Amino acid sequence: MGGETLDPPAGSVGDEAVLRLEIQGASKHFAGVAALKDVSLSVRAGEVHAVLGENGAGKSTLMNIATGTLQPDEGEIRVGGEVAATLTPARATALGIAIVHQHPAVMPDLTVQENLQVALPAAAFAGGARQAAERMLARVGLEVDLADRVETLTLAERHLLEIAKAFAVDPRVLILDEPTAPLGNDASELLFDLVRSAVAEGTSVVYITHRLAEVRELADTVTVLRDGRLRGNAVVADISDQELLNLIVGRELESTFPAKSGGDGEENLSVEGFSGPGFGDVSLVARRGEIVGVAGVVGNGQSQLLRGLAGLEETSGTVSVGGRRLDHRELLGEAAYMPADRITEGLMRSLSVRENAALSALSSFRSAGFLSRRREVSEVRGSLGSLSVRAPSLEAPVSALSGGNQQKVVISRALLADPPLLLADEPTQGVDVGARSEIYTILRAASERGVPVIIASSDAKELEGLCDRVVVMSRGRVVETLVGEEVTEERIVSAAVTSTAETVSAAAARRATRSSRLRRFVEGDYSPSALLVVLMLALAAYITPGNERYLSAFNISNVLLAATAIGFIALGQNLALLTGGIDLSVGPLAGFLVVVSSFYVLDRSGPAKVLLGFVLMVLVAAVVGLVNGSLVRFARFTPIAATLTLYIALGGFAFLLRSTQGGYISLGFQNAVNLRFGPLPVAFVVFVVLAVVMELALRRRRWGWRLRGVGSDEDAARRVGIDVDRTVIGAYVCSSLLAFLGALMFMGQYGIGDPSQGSAFTLTSVTAVVLGGTSLLGGRGTFIGTLAGAVLLQQLLNATTFLGLGSTSQYYFQGLLILVAAVVYTLARSRRRGRPAAG
């Protein structure tokens, strides 16, 4: 039966009147390895079509082709009977195709509402954006504040947000890729109800899962893939579970769960009075050969407990392993922890499969004091082989693997470390049925070797089959402990849903945190700006009593003019940093543009020549930005390498045009740039207005959401339909055009073409942006902060003069200020990884 292809169900092929989505003869290769080979899929209106297969069978690749995220090497896609050529995520959305990704396509640095608005068409928010967003969340039972940053949400909440986005557009074709993997029973049942309602209204649903029970409950038709090929297609009612399993794995499976321990071994784990963020007063024991399960409704402290046992949270109470008491630091160094969120916490996606698997066990690969590559490769290959990990090679980037195979790499790393304590949070999430059996066997073998194994799972059936002892948690506390024959699905679910345990204090803190505007402000993007204002006021208060000229109109005007010059450049630098890049060319570009202007904007020049000079400056700026962006996106240069290339080139071109200073800028133009009303320069007012307008666009317009979205998570941004290339290139072009505005200010302040000017402005612009709170990793920052950073920098330089300090001290102050800012911002923005339990 393993190699047999079943006949397709009647009406599923060839009936053009009912076909909603067709993929015909799709093939896709990655680095020469075939992910799909001549696969076809037909989905009718008003049906749930399940797609099954092992990890790496090609399911997600097929769905990425259906939604335009990937382009097939061969094959054709039809939507509603029409050929959809060169399908993109945006085009797929317009055609009525929505997808819930296995790894949610959410951008962590954006708020919940911003994630909804950047991914969905404006029509979805008719009648008020906030009200519409609240309805979307209520529809899927997601109780979070719209202003919460997505990085603070749990994995289950991120999946519910992804589901909310998909149902919000009332799609004609809805693709669900492992939608229930991180969800509890209540959320899963709600999702099933939503699917049934959508199908009743004519929506076509493609449902990818590893859970046969869900196929039986929801699906009408099933298609099976194996090794990138179509292996079977049938009506669900006409095929047995055993036949499906044989098609999925291509072989007969033995019993899913290994035999349990007798429970008479010596005690090897004792936890007493254990408390931490999200859980309290937890006590449990384990004996040699036992696997301990942690159960409960999702969000009741199970994950937090495992994080505490792994030493990742500050805790109280005692933990003894093998009779040896371990403190917080020892747990952190010795316990092996497999997180539920493998993407955020479990993997280093830029490293290879081998590097990810071997990372925790490097010390065991040493030979004569050196790392033995041969031994490392041998043991990693053996471990991955025992889990049937499918990868092009050990050196392939781990990000190229399917979700289930990535999970296996995480498990392999934990096992290779040979830890004294093994902790697994949802270890089989997104893993196929064949690999689950292998994982269970490996976990059982570890427990029989004497390693305490603790597993948190939302699947009560899994806990029943695998665990010898189960502690059930509710609101952060253990409400029941089941041992031996008491460990049944019914007892586990009953204990979880009927508990009346009191909520631990952290649960109340969670709700208070989410509703606290002060806490949200402290962790938000504007707190650095507020801190800079406080520093400016403190510095002025310190200097003024000793020197009354410090607050004179003349001094204030000079500081603001200098801040405006560097501020325009810093606004452009902020654009590049928000996308996750950097623009080292802005300083030399501003200096080069001043040199260009020194040939045209002169007292003896006529209006036409002056205008030509400004046009040339704008064109040069635009071309430089276009080159920078193209090198980054199309030539695959790193942002530093691309913009450093222009940094050097522009400095050289400036000296080619003028080997020494020369060309005096028109006095009329200088006077216009330096025009002021009292102590307030007009140019500074323009700078402030521009910063405010850009800030409003950053927060309230799709342009700003896309910009921050790309910097926050480029892959997620692409999957929601953002044109990443256009966004990044546009940011670099705008950065260069803002450098042009900075050049206008330097023309007014210096009044001469100087080829040596410009280089220092790059570092100063980066300093102003970083002080303003923009992340060097992208996704977070404000233009208001950049404004405040530019002013504080110039105030600081000005203050050294009034304090009688040397020029060297300016660099010390700048360095100290950046160091303090980095420490303060990091502490204020530290992610709350230990989320309190849901109340």
UniProtKB/TrEMBL annotation:
Signal peptide: none
GO cellular component: plasma membrane
Molecular function per GO: ATP binding; ATP hydrolysis activity; transmembrane transporter activity
Protein location: Cell membrane
Pfam family, one: ABC_tran
Keyword entries, A-Z: ATP-binding, Cell membrane, Membrane, Nucleotide-binding, Repeat, Transmembrane, Transmembrane helix, Transport
Domain ABC transporter: 21-252, 264-500
Membrane topology annotation: Multi-pass membrane protein
Transmembrane domains' residue ranges: 526-544, 550-572, 608-627, 634-657, 677-698, 728-752, 758-777, 784-805, 811-828
Major subcellular location class: membrane
Protein name, per record: ATP-binding cassette domain-containing protein
